[in-house]
Amino acid sequence: MKQLLQAGIITSPHGIHGEVKVYPTTDDPARFRELKTAVLKSGAKSERHGLESVKFFKNMAIIHFSGIDDMDTAQKYRDWEVLVTRDQAVPLGENEYYTADLIGMDVTTDEGEALGTLTDILQTGANDVYVVSTERYGDVLIPAIRDCIIQVDVNNNRMKVHLLPGLAEEKK
């Protein structure tokens, strides 16, 4: 399991005092108000910063991180990830999982067939849809519902699914 979870992406500076616009990648953007620190990461570089202020405008969080005090410095953080430690993450309910823990899981069917790897999660209005890349069927879209998701084992990076009729068609 990853110890750092993505909460947002810095898109651009905001104003001249070092604030940055952050596109939230969390289900609950208001969570930024509760954060005391975050890890900013780009490639192999990472830095821990305190959050000095947080406000919201449209779909963005406007955050002032400690040590980023002018527009030129803020510009250097464009496209950096905003990460939180697992203990700062929003608590999960029953049968809920962090996206970072699901991506890359090995997926098998309830009949024992090695299906493929979970590569993406699509968020729809009703339920999430897991994208599983397979050699046999191409990308298979599996709704994240009880009828399809039999077992999720985060510790062993495995998921067992039941393929409803029509979900997996042989590639031609």
UniProtKB/TrEMBL annotation:
It comes from the Bacteria. Residues 101-163 form the Ribosome maturation factor RimM PRC barrel domain. Residues 7-88 form the RimM N-terminal domain. GO terms for biological process: ribosomal small subunit biogenesis; rRNA processing. It is found in: Cytoplasm. GO terms for molecular function: ribosome binding. InterPro entries: PRC_barrel-like_sf (IPR011033), PRC_RimM (IPR056792), RimM (IPR011961), RimM_N (IPR002676), RimM_N_sf (IPR036976), Transl_B-barrel_sf (IPR009000). The keyword RNA-binding does not apply. One of its GO terms (cellular component) is ribosome. Keywords: Chaperone, Cytoplasm, Ribosome biogenesis, rRNA processing. The keyword Disulfide bond does not apply. Pfam families: PRC_RimM (PF24986), RimM (PF01782). Its main location: cytoplasm. Binds ribosomal protein uS19. Belongs to the RimM family. An accessory protein needed during the final step in the assembly of 30S ribosomal subunit, possibly for assembly of the head region. Essential for efficient processing of 16S rRNA. May be needed both before and after RbfA during the maturation of 16S rRNA. It has affinity for free ribosomal 30S subunits but not for 70S ribosomes. The PRC barrel domain binds ribosomal protein uS19. This is Ribosome maturation factor RimM.
